Amino acid sequence: MIRKIIHIDEEKCNGCGLCAKACHEGAIDIISGKARLARENFCDGLGDCLPNCPAGAITFEEREAPEYDAVAVERAKVSREMMSRGIQWPLQVKLVPVNAAFFEGADILLAADCTAYAYARMHEDFMRGRVTLIACPKLDGVDYSVKLGQIFAVNDVKSVTLVRMEVPCCGGLVRMAQEALRLSGKDIPLEVVTVSRAGEIAGMRE
Predict the structure, then answer these.
(1) 107 and 162 together in one domain
(2) Helices in the chain by DSSP H: which ranges?
(3) Is the pLDDT confidence value at 84 over 70?
(4) CB 68 within 8 A of CB 5
C-alpha cells in the first residue's frame, strides 16, 4: 500500500540515537552507527522522531510500505516491558512457543544449560536485555534446528548470542543455530561465546 512513512538520510545521520528513543513504536534501530528504519510496519507515519533529529536527517515520504501493524507494535512493547523487569518464561527451547510475544524485536541469548552455572557473571554479561533460551544438545536428544528456524523466521529477531561450554558436545548447539538461521532465510547476526571448564570466557567469534 502507498502511505506516509519516514525516510532517514544516512549521510546526514550522526548516529546520536535520539530518534530511536523518541520512537514509541520501536521502528528505528541504530545499526553500524546510523539510524535505520528497521521495521517499516512499526512506523505509524506520525513522526515523533522528526523534532528529535539534530542533523535534519529524517523526513516524510509517501511510498509503497507495509501497513502499520498496531498488534505487532503492542506485542513488542509488552516484550520490552517484560525484559526490563526480567520476566520471561519458559526458557527451555523445547517448551517455548514459536510466536511468544517476547521474541518481537528481541536480541536472543541461546545458552547451553551448563553455562549459567559455570560462568558466574551470566546474568550481568549475557542475559540482561536479551530473551534467554536454554538447551543441552547432548541430554535433550532433540535437534532444535527446525524450531529455532521457525522462531527466527516468524519473529523480528535482531541478533543471536550463543554461549556454549568448550566441551565437544556443545558444538551441536552451534550447528543447530547455524542451520536454524539458514532455514529462516534471514541474515541475523550470530555471535558464539565459549566458556572454559574453569568458568572463564575462552573465546568469542561471529
Answers:
(1) yes
(2) 18-22, 70-84, 115-118, 122, 145-154, 171-184
(3) no
(4) no
**Quick one: 36 and 122 in the same domain?**
no
- According to DSSP, the residues that pair with 161 across neighbouring strands are 109, 191
Cell numbers for 97:
512457543
Q: How many residues does the chain have?
A: 206
- HSE of 107, CA atoms in CB hemisphere, 13 A: 13
Domain identity same for 9 and 40:
yes
Cβ-contact 105, 26 below 8 angstroms: yes
β-pairing, 107-112 vs 28-31, is: unpaired
Q: Which domain covers residue 138, as residue numbers?
A: 86-205
Confidence label for 165 from pLDDT (cuts 50, 70 and 90): very high
Give the separation between CA 107 and CA 131, rounded to whole angstroms: 6
In DSSP notation, 139-162 reads: TS----HHHHHHHHHHS---EEEE
CB environment 144-163: b (16+ within 10 A), e (fewer)? bbebbbebbbebbbbebbbb
Average pLDDT over residues 90-119: 91
- Looking at residue 136, the DSSP 8-state letter turns out to be -
Rounded CA separation 86/6 (Å): 32
- 192 and 119 share one domain: yes
CATH of the domain at 127: 3.40.1360
